[in-house]
Amino acid sequence: MSAVSDFDRMYENFNARRIDEVLALMHPDVDWPNGWEDGFNPGIPAIRDYWTRKWAAIDLSVVPVAINDNDAGRVTVRIHQTVKDLSGKVLGDEEHNHIYEVQGGLIRSMEFRQ
Fold it and tell me: How far apart, in whole angstroms, are the C-alpha atoms of residue 96 and residue 114?
């Protein structure tokens, strides 16, 4: 993954619910946090299931504000996240950091930080 273009496209695809395009950027043994229910989602099938459940329950938009590639296999993306219920009521509107570990050009893990 090249930091800016691939990560911008990844978030665009996530927001458009193009799950296969996003999952194609993941390492087969990816470890993904479950910020909605707690815990982690190990592997692509678990992430697919998690996102499918999440999108059926809430309307989530995640937009990158800044992308910092430290050239050491870690990329920090400052994001603006808006969470709405399915009727459109805003439940959350805040910024967080997503910190990615990239291995062999694929996302190996991600963590949330306030």
Answer: 5
Q: How many CB atoms lie within 10 A of CB 80?
A: 13
Claim: this prediction has a pTM higher than 0.85: yes
Walking along the chain (114 residues) 10 residues at a time, the average pLDDT comes out as 81 98 96 87 94 96 94 91 97 96 94 88
**Residue 68 token pair:** 């910092």
User: In whole angstroms, what is the distance from residue 97 CA to residue 80 CA?
Assistant: 9
Quickly list H helices, 1-114: 3-15, 19-23, 44-57
Q: Could you write out the DSSP letters of every residue in 53-76?
A: HHHHH-EEEEEEEEEEE-SSSEEE
Domains and CATH numbers, the chain: 3-113 (3.10.450.50)
Give the residue carrying structure tokens 């090249």: 2
